[in-house]
Amino acid sequence: MAGEPNLDGSGLSIAVAVARFNEAITSRLLNGALDAVRRHGVSEHDVYWVPGSFELPVAAKHLAEGGRFDAVVCLGAVIRHETDHYLHIATQAAAGIQRVTLDSGVPCTFGVLTCDNDEQALARSGGNRGNKGFEAVESAIEMAKLIRSLRTG
Ligand code: INI
């Protein structure tokens, strides 16, 4: 049986990196993320804007390595267009964020939507399919708590 996640954010400091590209969607993801920060009582948070999802990994790297944050939440919206440009951005954002997580040991969560169209993205940013930003903060809290407990024994 799956255990209940520890989502008590007190004592945690979380960075939120958010892509400006497709801002109509990413601002909704950010609202969801900030809602989760408040609901779970995260002690400290800061928001950092970057141009697009492709830039999320390097921002996450500096935030994770800075030593100030227990977790980094990455938010973006990659939406399919006529060429395969979006595919490179989505793939590199995912791979880069995971690499930063493994290299730094600081959990960097993937709140990046990869969708076929705006309708799908709206549904997953506070519509009838939830809010990926909210979920990414909950995953960040759970992982930060787990890692803290593993370090302190
Ligand atoms: N950035 C996104 O976050 N989503 C997209 O859908 C997107 N598309 O499709 O082009 C996008 N492009 C910008 C990219 O992330 C970089 O900012 C840009 O290439 C400069 O490095």
Structure explained in plain terms:
The chain is of the alpha/beta class and 153 residues long. The protein is 48% helix and 24% strand. It has a single domain, classed as Lumazine/riboflavin synthase (Rossmann fold, 3-Layer(aba) Sandwich), CATH 3.40.50.960. It has helices spanning 23-39, 56-65, 85-104, 118-123, 132-152, and strands at 13-19, 44-50, 71-79, 108-115, 125-127, 130-131. Strands 2-1-3-4 form a four-stranded parallel beta sheet, with helices on both faces. The mean pLDDT is 96. The protein binds 5-nitro-6-ribityl-amino-2,4(1H,3H)-pyrimidinedione. 5-nitro-6-ribityl-amino-2,4(1H,3H)-pyrimidinedione (INI) is lined by residues 19, 21-22, 51-55, 76-79, 81, 85-86, 89.
List keywords for this structure.
single chain, 153 residues, alpha/beta, Rossmann fold, four-stranded parallel β-sheet, 24% strand, binds 5-nitro-6-ribityl-amino-2,4(1H,3H)-pyrimidinedione
Compact summary:
This protein has 5 helices and 6 strands. With 153 residues, it is α/β, with parallel strands linked by helices.
Layout of helices and strands:
Elements: E1 13-19, H1 23-39, E2 44-50, H2 56-65, E3 71-79, H3 85-104, E4 108-115, H4 118-123, E5 125-127, E6 130-131, H5 132-152
Parallel strand pairs: 1-2, 1-3, 3-4
Antiparallel strand pairs: 5-6
Helix pairs in contact: 1-5, 2-3
Bound molecules: 5-nitro-6-ribityl-amino-2,4(1H,3H)-pyrimidinedione.
